[in-house]
Amino acid sequence: MSRQWSVLIVEDEARVAATMSAALQREGFEAEAVSSLEEGLLRLPQKSWRIALVDLGLPDGSGLHFVRKAASRPGLGVIIVTGRGEETERVVGLEVGADDYMTKPFSMRELIARVRALQRRLDAQDQARAAAAATPAPAPRTWRLAGVLLDPARLRLVGQDGREQRLTGAEGGLLSLLLEAADQGVERTVIAERVLGHRLLPQQRGIDQLASSLRHKLDEASAGRIRIVALRGRGYRLVWPD
To answer: What is the chain's alpha carbon radius of gyration, rounded to the nearest angstrom?
Structure first.
């Protein structure tokens, strides 16, 4: 790496926090761990963190509160690391702004791979912002379907009533792929590589969780008129009324 990336670990299990911190430091990251929601919220604005690893079951509150705060900071990526593996927990975590979700127990090798994948996506976003600032570019493309403004570049949906629904970076990336593919659909391998930043792994559920969280937001913004449908064994497609 050309520079050292700082990682904030919000994890109340001291052994787990120490293991993650040591693994990250061996890979060249700067890692710091705190053990409570309060400590995490206090430490968050004190440094230019690039990635946060957040447990949901903290002793003084839900880690989701930290995820919301962290996701609102430009350039900060968030990975949830928790023992809560239910689909509802995963979907809610992604909806409030997490970029990825890991269920304990996991290997440090997988953790580093997920952190590296997120690092690549954040690096690409940094480069895109720098290029946009240096070179005048046309206005980002938007779509209007079923009365809803779809603006993946600005990470938002605007319903007919004017209410804005915010998207995460990964949701915006998936929406852009689905819109560009029209009625052909997008393969899971393409989503993995272009949105999640890594090759499709066996039994990988991150794509399904991402599609589920985006589906929920589209359903809410369009009153059920814009839908994401699964192409069995292949990927996903966006459908809407003519």
So the answer is: 18
CA distance 52 to 70: 8
Residue 29 CA to residue 118 CA, distance in Å, equals 13
Residue 63 lies in a domain: yes
Q: What whole-number distance in Å separates Cα of residue 102 and Cα of residue 78?
A: 11
| DSSP conformational letter for 153 | G
Cross-strand pairs, 157: 150, 165
Tell me what percent of the residues of the chain surpass a pLDDT of 90: 58
Of 110, 133, 156, at which residue does a domain stop? 133
Segment 97-107, tens digit of pLDDT:
898 999 999 99
pTM: 0.60
CB atoms within 10 A of CB 128: 12
Report the half-sphere exposure of 136 (CA within 13 A, side-chain side): 0
Q: What is the 3-state secondary structure (H, E, C) of 45-71?
A: HHCCCCEEEECCEECCEEHHHHHHHHH
CATH of the domain at 92: 3.40.50.2300
Please tell me the total number of residues recorded for the chain in this structure. 242
